[in-house]
Amino acid sequence: MYKLYNVKTWGSLAPHCVLEELGVPYQNIWMTGEQVRDPKFKEISPLGFVPVLGLPDGRPIVESAAIIAFLTDAHTDKKLAPAPGEADHAEYLSALAFMSVNLYQMISIFYAPGLLADTDAEKATVARRAAENANALFDMIETRLGKEGPFMLGDRFSAADIYLFMLSLWARPSEAAHLSRCPHIAKVSAAVRARPKLKAALDAHGVMELGGYGA
Ligand SMILES: N[C@@H](CCC(=O)N[C@@H](CS)C(=O)NCC(=O)O)C(=O)O
Q: Is it the case that residue 214 has pLDDT exceeding 80?
């Protein structure tokens, strides 16, 4: 059975939703931020991050985009993403990697500017620039959805939309401000919130309503 190391509203939210959509058996391990920051957790997650997916053979897998792509590839019958070998699968992987490497990372810098700055003034500048850069990346996705949407893969809903939904929860100055600036992304978020199989998980994370992540 899979094991998901999960913290409410953190980066494990999208893998959690993907597991729920796939309907595969898994053990959900709720953690607190304190437990994640315990040095012992680095034995299974080298950077001390969630998500971690434990495979049925016990191996821990890190990196949210890899976890999601692995899960949808392992369960292609559930059709939550194009199957490996299809041209759309390349687009799917590209969309996940784009969001993970660029957007997730930029949002992380916003929340932890101390990674790249020392003084409070430097941290404020880094946080402001990270928020601006994240919003510019959201705008690129918004433009793409306007031209080729309504979903990340055109007409087809996929786990990439769940990933975008998760990132949107963290957008600044608030999810509401972000979604009113990006109406196409807002439709993706609404579509995710309307998925019957996700209701329990989204309720558990406290994000069924707008602004569940702080603002
Ligand atoms: N590149 C990683 C980033 C994961 C990450 O940044 N996780 C954050 C939560 S959203 C975390 O666990 N932070 C640890 C902490 O704040 O102590 C991924 O995509 O899985």
A: no
